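Dataset card, provenance and construction

Sequences and ligand SMILES were collected as paired inputs. For each pair, a complete structure of the chain with the small molecule in place was predicted and serialized as structure tokens. The example below shows a pair involving fe (ii) ion. Curators did not alter the output after generation; any descriptive sentences attached to a record were derived from the structure itself.
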Amino acid sequence: MPEAAAIPIIDISAEEADQAQVAKELLFSWTRVAAAVEYGFIYIKNSGRDISVEQIENAFNLSRTLFSSPLEDKQRCKIEKNNRGWSGMHTETLDPETQRVGDFKEGFNFGPFAGSKATQPIPASIEPHQAELAAFRFACHSLCRKLLLLFGIGLGVSPPDFFSTAHAPEKPSGSILRFLYYPPPSSTPTARPDQDVRAGAHSDYGSITLLFRLRGQAGLEILKTPSSPSPPEWAPVPVCPPGTEADPASPILVNIGDLLSYWTNGLLRSTVHRVSFAGSDSNSDSSSTTTPNSESSTDPRYSLVYFCHPADDTPLSAVPSERVRSFNGGDLADADAKTKNPYAERKVLTANEHLQMRLRASYLELYDREDREKK
Ligand SMILES: O=C(O)CCC(=O)C(=O)O
Ligand SMILES: [Fe+2]
């Protein structure tokens, strides 16, 4: 039976927390522990100080409202090449090489807000709540910048706000607040839980990602042995790891995206993850993973994700840090990872060029349609 992933839990918001100490702890977890067990994830204890518990609950409620809107309302907001809007079931295929069918999920991507107004079409049901959405998105971005500052301190970057400055909130960027809805397996009878997934295996594109989940809702797994041949081994990532059960809200999961991994020479590692049907009733024959206690996949699943990106025009050139410069890949520099790194031989990309390259690969149909229309 696969064990739950041993992901460290960090408290970054304790009143008395000393920034340098927190940064050290964070970096230690991310580079040493994470490299040892090969997980590029970390839990942030959710004290409610950075993002209030009410704000998170409200965002989940808005997500329920949004996805239960009439289909025509959602279709009116269909996802565009700017990566904003609604994507229906199977629209996105996060792992096109392996999946026989697209992800069993719906998503809604929110780009920037102008003040408290959305800058994209949104369903009528959430129109009255634009200010709350804008505030939540901003709170997520601020938490990411706080983490990026801690990375800067921990990596000895000069100046330490190198990363956080590159993520100035007022500049155009690929940052996206995404609501996700995974319908219950009972309403997706074509799903074959032994081979299909709710979201295909992928690593995130940006610098860091925040993930908010609800207690009891299973599914997230991370790849344990990226360098082994087949079959891949997956470790479930519990929503509430031991020690956080009594916290006001479940911890926020943070993971490194490909852009930050690339930018830091692989010192900070992005990890492949997916959302499986593990724990659903129909999964009893599955060779896949089991779920942590008291979590299941039989219910609808909702998650909130914040993908943080640097400003579009940020050149992803060398990070001014001796630690990054002198990192030669260490144990992480396995040949497999290198051949799979699509950027290894490329010129210095800007953050936006990096994002466009990745989007094209996962929204095959959207791009094919637009290419056909252009012809
Ligand atoms: O829904 C989840 O738990 C994970 C979603 C995810 O990994 C993503 O959208 O990038
Ligand atoms: Fe992801």
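Derived descriptions for this record:
The two ends are 52 Å apart (CA to CA).
Residues 202, 204, 273 surround fe (ii) ion (ligand 2) (CB under 6 Å).
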